[in-house]
Amino acid sequence: MLVPYEALLSLPQETLQAMIKEYLLSQLEDGSFSDVDEQQMAYATERCKHALKKGELVVEYSEDDESIAIRQREHISARVND
């Protein structure tokens, strides 16, 4: 189930920040943030928020395993169409 963007706005900021950080961490191939400084992280976070607002990224809640995660919309669409 996709969570509407408007619903994200009602989440506590800490919750949204944690989801974005988890998403960004998942995008790094080596899983380490040793080469990313605070400024780069802040920039990446803002880009992620903008992509959520534009609908390029979506928040998906899985009822099966009761998890929530940010996903690329195109990956969700491809999975549904398979």
Automatic annotation (TrEMBL):
InterPro entries according to UniProt: UPF0270, YehU-like_sf
SUPFAM superfamilies: YehU-like (SSF118001)
Pfam family membership, one: UPF0270
Similarity annotation: Belongs to the UPF0270 family.
Protein name: YheU family protein
Species whose genome carries this gene: Shewanella ulleungensis
